[in-house]
Design brief:
Elements (H helix, E strand, L loop, with lengths): L1 H16 L16 H86 L5 H23 L2 E3 L12 E7 L9 E6 L2 E3 L2 E4 L1 E6 L1
Parallel strand pairs: 2-6
Antiparallel strand pairs: 1-4, 3-6, 4-5
Helix pairs in contact: 2-3
Length: 205
């Protein structure tokens, strides 16, 4: 009895240790190794990044070109505006000087009359006091003109300069060299380095 039990146990154990042929677990279709899959994934991400970077670079280049174009246009417009502003300022300044010059010329006529009166001024009596009053008015008028930028043109003992002097006669003079100014008949004046009225002179030839 015991021998039969031992035989039965051995038979069962042997049957448990063996598997019938063809009973092995079937494997699933072969898959890519993990490292290769990871590499392909990384490559795809890099390609996408490169493509997006190239697209962004193209947009940036276009934006920079547009910004440069706008900057160039703005600089040209600004330069044109500055030139226009300077031209307007010059024209206004020239117009102002012309208007002031035309007004001041009228005072020069009064100044001429006062100068002629003072050349024959009396030196005695009540007339001398009157002449002193005339001289005071004369000096005040000169001060007003000078405050407006009016300056007398040098002429006495100068060489004739056609840009500042106007010759009314050319005379022989043993005491003067050629083109020397013999006499100033009427004073000339400038304003802002521009001739307001040339000096009338007699010139030696």
């Amino acid at each position: 009895m015991e021998e039969e039990k031992k035989k039965h146990v051995k038979t069962s154990a042997g049957s448990m240790g063996k598997q019938p042929a063809g009973s092995e677990a079937k494997t699933s279709p072969q898959q890519k190794p993990g490292e290769e899959l990871e590499k392909e994934t990384t490559t795809a991400i890099e390609d996408q990044f490169i493509a997006e970077n190239a697209a962004l670079r193209g947009e940036l280049d276009q934006a920079l070109d547009k910004a440069k174009e706008n900057l160039d246009g703005w600089q040209r417009e600004r330069a044109d505006f500055m030139n226009y502003k300077k031209r307007v300022e010059r024209e206004q300044s020239y117009l102002k000087e012309n208007l002031a010059g035309e007004i001041l010329k009228k005072y020069l006529v009064v100044l001429d009359d006062l100068e002629r009166a003072l050349k024959v001024r009396p030196t005695e009596g009540d007339a001398a006091a009157w002449a002193d009053g005339i001289e005071l008015v004369y000096r005040k008028l000169i001060g007003i003109l000078e405050s407006e930028g009016v300056k007398r043109i040098p002429a006495e003992s100068e060489k004739f300069d056609p840009t500042r002097h106007e010759a009314i006669t050319h005379e022989d003079s043993p005491d003067h060299e050629s083109d020397d100014i013999i006499e100033v008949v009427r004073q000339g004046y400038t304003i802002a380095d521009r001739v307001l009225r040339p000096a009338l002179v007699r010139v030696a030839r």
